[in-house]
TrEMBL record:
Keywords: DNA-binding, Phosphoprotein, Transcription, Transcription regulation, Two-component regulatory system. Residues 3-116 form the Response regulatory domain. Residues 128-226 form the OmpR/PhoB-type domain. It comes from Actinophytocola xinjiangensis. This is DNA-binding response regulator. The keyword Transcription applies. It comes from the Bacteria. PROSITE patterns: OMPR_PHOB (PS51755), RESPONSE_REGULATORY (PS50110). PANTHER family: DNA-BINDING DUAL TRANSCRIPTIONAL REGULATOR OMPR, REGULATOR OF RPOS.
Amino acid sequence: MTAVLVVDDDLTVRDVVRRYLEQAGHRVALADNGEDALAWVAGNSPDLVVLDLMLPGIDGLEVCRRLRATSTVPVIMLTALGEEEDRIAGLSLGADDYVTKPFSPKELTLRVGSVLRRAATPPPPPPSRVLADGDLVLDLSARAATLRGTGLALTTREFDLLAFLLANPGEAFDREQLLERVWGWDFGDQSTVTVHVRRLREKVEPVPAKPVRIVTVWGLGYRYDPAS
């Protein structure tokens, strides 16, 4: 039985989400503020956290930031309608998905199941164990990346995305394809691809605002153009 922590300061939301998740076979813990949520995670090992962004005291973004400093537990954010900047910020901090309020408890339950399946079965890496493009080298066995001989600090998702693009040079992919083929997501927020592409460009492009490796294919998505 998977353990899910639901963090929301609205009693009604907590109760409804708890009942739906328990009916789906999950064990549910509840918290109504960020401090209690962080303390509960520190003393337990949840399989997933459902996290509202608008919390008293420590808000959801700060909770997500602190979680990611010590844990890879999947996080689904609950956000208010129209708060796109907060959603993008949460995804940048490592949240796995988001649901916009008001939401369907049934949809949230399905998303919880989907994120848990993705976390349990990460996609296999490309067949080649070393990928290289000039001064950019990815060692898939060690999951290490270097640029001009210097190590790159990449998150798991950044590494997987860069490895996929590098293994398929010159081929354009839309964001839905990248969600499915890189991370095995059957549905999810496509803006997470945009966020991770931007972060990768900041790390591998000479001028991130004018990318020459991870280029935008207007009206479609992205393509990797080899430098060498």
